[in-house]
Specification:
By secondary structure, this protein is of the alpha+beta class. Helices cover 45% and strands 11% of the residues. The protein has 17 helices and twelve strands.
Length: 396
Amino acid sequence: MQESGVPQFGSDAWFLDASPWYDLMLRSAPIFFEKGSSTWNVFSYKDVERVLTQFSIFSSEFGGYEEAGSQREHSSDEATIMGSMLTTDPPLHTKLRNIVSRSFTPISISLLELRIREIASGLLNAVDASSFDFVTDFSDPLPVTVIAEMLGIPAKDRKKFKKWSDNEIGSSEESPLNRRRTHVELARYFSKIIEERKKNPSDDLISSIVTSKVDGMKLTDSEAVSFCILLLIAGNETTTNLLGSAVRLFARYHSLEELHERPSMIPSAVEEVLRFSSPVRGMFRVAIKDAEISGKQVHAGDSMMAWIGSANRDGSKFTEPQKFDIERKPNPHIAFGHGIHMCLGAPLARLESQVAIGLLAENYRNVELRVKEESLVPIRNVAIGGVRHLPVRFGA
């Protein structure tokens, strides 16, 4: 379906800003079936919320996991994210999530605020505010440094982590063969760290993963590697893209001066960026039972794509959804998902973003892009939105 002025699905313009397409689909086809892929696409808030919540009908087990404790063993070279919290449902999902959940509670995360501020301040002090790449110099290294420290990764190895993370979500510019080699490199790296933590556990997330048990049994090495890869990706990609989107929007709508004058608005501004330009565009599910959704018959085995970015612009849920309003209240967006699979790292992403934007607003009154928005190079990932580089200029 196409309309004048709406970017074609999969085009660079779409990857840079899918919101006109969301608006079109909400008006004309809020739920439709793609025969070629046997996939239902759902766009309205109520349908997306339902697909993400009702795991007994719309399952996350599209990866075909096998239960922990089965005799499944893969070499670390073959480790993938499958079998992780992303692709399991309760009760296994709950048990896997509990392994690290204590490290991601709002109270636990709040203890990191001073360290996050220290890292962010150091990054800002190292650049020329009048001309730098916000992604490369700030929004990439901030969250990856934080999650690497939480995992317990030696400081000397942290520069490798962003390359590995980009590779895992398919956003790197490497060839498929080189991406495969990089994946093997990451899996081998985590395997070595895991072996070390088995012998000498410490107070970090990797130690929690290797020492915890699910149904009385420890995770296999490949499951532990998968868990580490998931935390690496989830712990930095969303925040990197959230911060990039925030700066793009602040430049477009001249919001930074208002935040400079009224820093108390920063938390609501972060929530509005999450709603208006959701870092995660959509999430996959698979129907495991026949069901009806908005008058359409879904059959067991059909794939589901729940478009979170579209749900967050649904006029039946949000007043003036096309308006970027940093004072919006209430703001019941579902940018971090919904239900039992709601993003475990949401408190961390929020805190990192509030600290980072707070520092920007404290030091500067305005920001502008040094290139036209349409010339930015997007990450070509359907589910995750962001740009590779963001040349900016901050001014006092």
